[in-house]
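Quick one - first record:
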Amino acid sequence: MVRLGLERVSLGDVLLVTFEVVFAVVLLAGLIGVPAAYAMARREFPGKKAVMLLFLLPLLIPPITYGIPLATVLYQAGLGGTLWGVILANLVPTVPFVILVMIPFVEQIDPRVEAAARVFGAGTFRMFVHVLAPLLLPGVLAALLLVLVRTIAMFELTFLVAGPTSTTLVVALYAAVNSPGVRAVQSVDAMAMIYMGVTLVWLILALQFVNPTQIVTRAKRENTH
């Protein structure tokens, strides 16, 4: 058991919440970030540089800097201490991360490929699913892999928003180390080993589907075919 505030949370519940947060953040960051990256790479519009700067800010400044006002807004909206509050907080840095990773992959695709698909009658949705998605797959996998690792390790934003029923493993580990009273060192060490083990297992599983050292080469090779 780990203590967060006055509540006791089982380690099984913490692991389940961690899985739910990670998978939800990865899925939503991909669904939002990939189309946004395509729009940023293919469209010119007033204020585009300002938008890019806005995307960069959550990645350049410490999370605690914007985490406190973000947590305030989420609590005022009734989402503080909930699972969805933790997910939304983690989307703030991960969606811009996906966008910035995906823009170069979109730019590598020859626009004539898209033009040819439109000539043969493909609409925007069909072109994206049947033409662009296979070409963008290496970049999508790379971006989502990095989002997965980042979300597992995200402490500041999760700590500020999490409640007793929305605590992830990294926050629970911090709570166990800093909880009042005497705690067996073995229990904290066990939680730390579980945290490292879960992270390592997810990394190994993710690397079965994508090799980061070959992503750019694969993207270029696929675009030449």
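second record:
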Amino acid sequence: MAASYNRVLLMGNLTRNPELRYISGGSAVCEFGIAINRKFVAGGQDREETTFVDIVVWGRSAESCSRFLAKGSSVFIEGRLQLDQWEDQQGGKRSRLRVVAENVQFVGARRDGAGNSDAPAQGGAPAGQTGGGYQPRGNAAPAGPGGYQMRGNTRPQSGANDAPPVPDEAFNVGDDVEDDIPF
């Protein structure tokens, strides 16, 4: 039997606010849906189709998604397909295909921080801040050193990781040191 490969890359906008819950073992689970638009030409006319995909995220990434994403947020998802099967109350067999996200990157401009708004803010990042691509809800601020670390396009607010200045004497190595680079 040939080897299998299950990898999904998707980019779209959230169709609803993320729903965070915790399972009995204490692990965080966040579920949301995204809409992916595709434009194409058929019969000489421009057309557009939208595909809706359910996403599930686990662990600390789930908590970050719940905290920083809202309906309308743009995300880039890397994950795998998972088929869920169950029996409904009438005894019928049901199934659904969804994506288990292993990497979530927050895409787009930061919102204005006015809370969990359904409409994206205009103009991108506020003055003096980098466009980190995440949306703080309420008075939430991104974690600094020692806080959570999520793979992806998350950046701290400007100044959060600034190193102290290096003193000039650190560059004085003396006359006996060869400072030419041999290439």
